[in-house]
Amino acid sequence: MNKILCAVLATAVFYAGGNSVGAQSSAVSDGVVRIGVLTDMSGVFSDLAGAGAVTAAQMAIDDFKAAKKPSFKVELVTADHQNKPDIATGIAREWYDTGGVDLITEVINSGVALAVSGVAESKKKMLIVTGSGSTRLTNEQCSPNTISYTWDTYAFSNGQARIVKNLGLDTWYFVAVDYALGKALVSDASAAINRSGGTVVGTVYHPISTTDFSSFLLQAQASKAKVIGLANAGADLLNSIKASKEFKISPAQTIVPLVGTITEVNSLGAEAAQGMLLVEPFYWDFDDASRQWSKRFFDKFGKMPNFVQAGAYSAVTNYLLAVQNAGSDDAGAVMKEIKSKPINDMFARNGQIRDDGRMVHDLYLVQVKSPAEMKNKWDYYNVKETVPGKEAFQPLSESRCKLVAK
Asked: Could you tell me which of 14, 6, 15, 120 has the C-alpha nearest to residue 337?
């Protein structure tokens, strides 16, 4: 949990809100805003988040200081939760109680995110989740102190279900990780597929950090479903895709990762990943804003960012702007401010944070190019369709959140 006093870099901050609610008072406690990136630094999700998320958060702090010259200091602390909710909640309590941390962000791993959300609410502090996609964060366990910023299983499932309508791939079998993420993906994807006229013929669950996927994939292959949906992430997703290639499952059956990112595509290479369909909240080559920021990230980190890392930059940037506009680091005041403005930046298009804590924004249905189509090493995607946020994310009319007026 090393503290990093942020250096100033000259760069631009992309934000639609501006400084409309000027800082009438300087109610930032002890004159310092402390942000904690609580992430997986060494485990199955470390490539998705980890050091890349820390780099993105540091960039956001540096950019904010250079552009806005705040009257308060900003410090970053980091820790590895090891994908264990008990370790994560212990760190969160220490940070909130004695470390002076105002915001915890990232928290990849759904079990970790749900546990830390409870701590944030009890301590009256803020949590912005950029890694976990559990819909419980905005439904049964919604909190006035938590924002779910980048994605969730409902939205990704809606995006994937468009494959049923557009390509006629109407029978699915799931290979899913046996914890909150996998179960939520299967539940939400099954509902979306059924709404689109498709059928789920079966599901098999595997433990997290599985190295041998042979038995699970052989069951999926034997189902003869047109699509094998991989409801896992990180190293588990990589290993399951590699195993599916060894068993020559495709092209007879289409492999669809439910939470694939450019990080896994790059690890696999275009030859192995070509043709795969993914839902992405962010693509580095989408427009000028995403390209400019991503190239700066690449210069610092050596890889193009995925959506978790880009989301961490956007979340920290908009949090700090809300603190400055509110003139306070009080969680209630900051939450009110950050929800009051639309978010349009290098990450989000048409973004808005709702009463349930869900940040709604556009998503993209993308297909991995063949090696022959690629113009450069990171030119992986053809964007097939933009999915408007209001069509992708769960509507408030279906919300199970206590904060949503019925």
From this structure: 15
Q: What is the Cα Rg of the chain in Å?
A: 20
Alpha carbon separation from 61 to 212, 283, 365 (Å, rounded): 41, 22, 31
**Model pTM?**
0.88
* Closest alpha carbon to 130 in 365, 347, 395: 347
Q: What is the pLDDT of residues 323-364, one digit of tens each?
A: 999 999 999 999 999 999 999 999 999 999 999 999 999 999
Give the containing element (helix H, strand E) for 129: strand 126-129
Position 163 scores a pLDDT of 75
Strand order in the sheet with 363-368: 277-280, 363-368, 381-387
Give residue 128's Cα distance to chain centre: 10
CATH of 166-280+364-385, one of 1.10.357.10, 3.90.1150.10, 2.60.40.10, 3.40.50.2300: 3.40.50.2300
Domain residue ranges of the chain, discontinuous segments joined by +: 3-151+285-360, 166-280+364-385
106 strand-pairing partners: 38, 129
| Dihedral of the alpha carbons of 230, 232, 236, 239, in degrees to the nearest 10 | 10
Give the mean pLDDT of 281-297.
Answer: 98
Model confidence pLDDT, tens digit, residues 109-121 = 999 999 999 999 9
Interhelix angle 234-246/214-222, rounded to 10 degrees, is: 60
